[in-house]
């Protein structure tokens, strides 16, 4: 009983619950300046708590399962938010899934990945990882992104950058199948491809730290992780009108709001990846970044395919020329980064420049 009281008294328990209560109190309400600040503070606290609980769960189940838990949990909640907004948002949300998924791919494959490589290289001169596992993950992301976001631009079944119903069903089926196949490979036969490696390519032992948490503690953390992630996504939506007003005030395109919200939603993965890179576990960072990109596509496309039964109007999935160019450059650069199995500051800097280019062009198309 005393241990339970101590658990419930920690900030990592209090903050997610408080952030969820704040979300319930402010849902669908117009927030003034003070409330925006308050919700923003609880949003930041929920992000930090999510990272803590994800690490507790990862410590219990080991890698690569820990990275998979955080990536899938964030993506499932993000997908639910996208579908909810698309069902209730009308014509202005016809391209929401495309914009959100593309932003997630660019943030994870350039922003998070580049930051992880930069931190790893700063610590050990070289960021070392397993090229087999990382290469397979990158190939899966590239295939999913091309089939779901590039091909609709060139199909002729429907006018505009959209799939016909049969094409959309096929894209949803292969996206889900390919993601399931990757998870099976990552957690089964080739699990060792996704474990941290040393400078000579040897698999590193598990980190030496405190004893693994009990099953009860891990389940509590798993529940609190879900609470924190719901709070992150929901509070991000609550402050989105203030973000929209700020974006409009500085004459940025309306689509830039999606970039800001995607950055907020992906903060837990960003912080978790940076912390893993600081511990010389760059492979875990790459598992998080590429796994999040993969889950974002592999789960969003099937979800919106089902939701399209109730959606009115076209579902715009095809990217424009600028976005296709950025995606192609990201894939080419990613291949050149992954093949050697080690990266310097240069590779990290290149990916961060691509991320900066994405943000800049989203603000100034």
UniProtKB/TrEMBL annotation:
<keyword id="KW-0472">Membrane</keyword>
<feature type="transmembrane region" description="Helical">
    <location>
        <begin position="65"/>
        <end position="89"/>
    </location>
</feature>
<protein>
    <submittedName>
        <fullName>Ionic transporter y4hA</fullName>
    </submittedName>
</protein>
<feature type="transmembrane region" description="Helical">
    <location>
        <begin position="345"/>
        <end position="363"/>
    </location>
</feature>
<feature type="transmembrane region" description="Helical">
    <location>
        <begin position="33"/>
        <end position="53"/>
    </location>
</feature>
<dbReference type="InterPro" id="IPR052946">
    <property type="entry name" value="Alkaline_pH_Ca-Antiporter"/>
</dbReference>
<feature type="transmembrane region" description="Helical">
    <location>
        <begin position="254"/>
        <end position="274"/>
    </location>
</feature>
<dbReference type="InterPro" id="IPR004837">
    <property type="entry name" value="NaCa_Exmemb"/>
</dbReference>
<feature type="transmembrane region" description="Helical">
    <location>
        <begin position="218"/>
        <end position="234"/>
    </location>
</feature>
<feature type="transmembrane region" description="Helical">
    <location>
        <begin position="166"/>
        <end position="185"/>
    </location>
</feature>
<keyword id="KW-1133">Transmembrane helix</keyword>
<dbReference type="Pfam" id="PF01699">
    <property type="entry name" value="Na_Ca_ex"/>
</dbReference>
<feature type="transmembrane region" description="Helical">
    <location>
        <begin position="7"/>
        <end position="27"/>
    </location>
</feature>
<feature type="transmembrane region" description="Helical">
    <location>
        <begin position="134"/>
        <end position="154"/>
    </location>
</feature>
<feature type="transmembrane region" description="Helical">
    <location>
        <begin position="101"/>
        <end position="122"/>
    </location>
</feature>
<feature type="domain" description="Sodium/calcium exchanger membrane region">
    <location>
        <begin position="35"/>
        <end position="187"/>
    </location>
</feature>
<feature type="transmembrane region" description="Helical">
    <location>
        <begin position="286"/>
        <end position="310"/>
    </location>
</feature>
<feature type="transmembrane region" description="Helical">
    <location>
        <begin position="316"/>
        <end position="338"/>
    </location>
</feature>
<keyword id="KW-0812">Transmembrane</keyword>
<feature type="domain" description="Sodium/calcium exchanger membrane region">
    <location>
        <begin position="221"/>
        <end position="361"/>
    </location>
</feature>
